[in-house]
């Protein structure tokens, strides 16, 4: 029998293809490896016409996790000086991508390239803050004992300080690509589906791929380190590409997750939010169901009576924000966006981490 690489669904996001390929091929495969000695080579991106799903090879994740948690606490990842430097780079990147005076093409080109450089410098520490302060924290503590506490505190501080940065970066990248496309009389939507090399060719040389090629990506695509395929679903090609993915078993009436903030039992109608474009239409008093929140989801989170996510741990944006807003929140359900649809009446028992349909 052929040997397939087993995948885990890691994130559902709307970062855009340029960021997806830069993230995989530069940040995870190169920058993380150069910083700690090991990286992740593969990340399968599947786009369904609205959002991307990011899958990683289970064995690669496990190998990196075991390697990282055993790094000595004297490693640069865990020092206070490293924390200071990381937060300085985050500040500099945010200052750059919030600029509104990028009028000339030379200014845009300079800012675009500088943003790539800053993200490359800080990403390994960004990744560490997410995983060490989150899903790897228990194993990290088991390995290092009480000495891990100070390190975890720094990683958590970095996590809070940089929350949503990759999304902010992706928005900036698409904004610059969209400006350049507009100047060449192309639909700015195509900024979402420009590959890394194509985006660089647009920025540096005003070269755009043939429209027929860009249009083929509207309905969806699959991107791996070796393949790029349009017009096919990931499910139909998974085995052919050498992968397998076992989706979680779904109960169509009830889901269970982790309590991030508990209040009394809440009932409300579901509104599914997949991208920031869905936030503007979020109704007051609805139950927010989403893959994961980011800072630009805050208007919807403030209107919501409860927050339910597919992803995340107790240090994720949804959990932190829900505690600040004192809104019932259940995270890490894995399947909320698959089980519930707009208008479903649900009961949210955040104390027990259970959401169920009641009508």
Sum this structure up briefly.
Helices cover 44% and strands 17% of the residues.
Shape: globular
Strand content: 15-25%
Strand arrangement within the widest β-sheet reads 7-14-13-9-10-11-12-8
According to DSSP, the number of beta strands is: 14
How would you sum up this structure, described in words?
The mean pLDDT is 93. The chain has helices spanning 17-36, 58-69, 80-97, 105-132, 137-144, 148-162, 165-183, 196-205, 211-215, 234-237, 298-303, 317-325, 336-339, and strands spanning 5-13, 44-47, 52-57, 221-223, 228-230, 243-244, 254-256, 258-261, 266-272, 287-290, 306-309, 329-331, 345-349, 354-357. It is globular and about 60 Å long. Helix 3 (80-97) packs antiparallel against helix 4, helix 3 packs parallel to helix 7 and helix 4 packs antiparallel against helix 6 (148-162). With 359 residues, it is of the alpha/beta class. It is built from 13 helices and 14 strands. The strands form 2 sheets. Strands 7-14-13-9-10-11-12-8 form an 8-stranded mixed β-sheet. A 6-stranded mixed β-sheet has the order 5-4-2-3-1-6. The chain has 2 domains: 5-234, no CATH class; 254-357, Glucose Oxidase, domain 1 (3-Layer(bba) Sandwich), CATH 3.50.30.10.
């Amino acid at each position: 029998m052929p040997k397939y690489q087993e995948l885990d669904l890691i994130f559902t996001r709307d970062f855009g293809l340029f960021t997806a390929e830069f993230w995989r091929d530069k940040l995870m495969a190169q920058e993380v490896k150069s910083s700690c000695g090991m990286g992740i080579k593969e990340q399968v991106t599947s786009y369904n016409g609205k959002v991307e799903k990011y899958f990683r090879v289970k064995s690669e994740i496990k190998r990196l996790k075991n390697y990282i948690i055993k790094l000595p606490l004297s490693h640069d990842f865990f020092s206070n000086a490293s924390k200071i430097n990381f937060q300085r780079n985050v500040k500099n990147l945010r200052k750059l991508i919030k600029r509104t005076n990028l009028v000339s093409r030379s200014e845009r080109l300079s800012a675009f390239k500088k943003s790539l450089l800053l993200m490359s410098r800080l990403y390994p520490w960004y990744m560490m803050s997410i995983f060490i302060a989150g899903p790897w924290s228990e194993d990290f503590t088991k390995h290092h004992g009480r000495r891990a506490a100070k390190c975890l505190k720094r990683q958590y501080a970095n996590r809070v300080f940089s929350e949503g940065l990759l999304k902010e970066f992706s928005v900036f990248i698409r904004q610059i690509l969209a400006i350049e496309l507009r100047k060449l009389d192309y639909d700015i939507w195509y900024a979402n589906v420009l590959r890394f090399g194509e985006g660089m060719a647009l920025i540096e040389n005003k070269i755009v791929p043939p429209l027929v090629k860009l249009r083929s990506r509207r309905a969806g695509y699959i991107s791996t380190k070796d393949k790029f395929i349009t017009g096919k679903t990931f499910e139909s090609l998974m085995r052919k590409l050498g992968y397998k993915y076992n989706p979680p078993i779904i109960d169509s009436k009830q889901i269970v997750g982790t309590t991030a903030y508990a209040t009394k039992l809440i009932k409300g109608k579901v509104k599914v939010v997949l991208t920031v474009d869905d936030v503007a239409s979020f109704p007051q008093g609805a139950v927010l169901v989403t893959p994961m929140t980011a800072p630009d989801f805050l208007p919807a989170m403030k209107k919501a009576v409860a927050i339910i996510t597919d992803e995340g741990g107790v240090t994720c944006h949804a959990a932190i924000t829900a505690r600040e807003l004192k809104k019932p929140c259940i995270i890490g359900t894995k399947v909320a966006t698959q089980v519930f649809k707009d208008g479903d009446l649900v009961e949210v028992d955040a104390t027990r981490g259970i959401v169920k349909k009641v009508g």
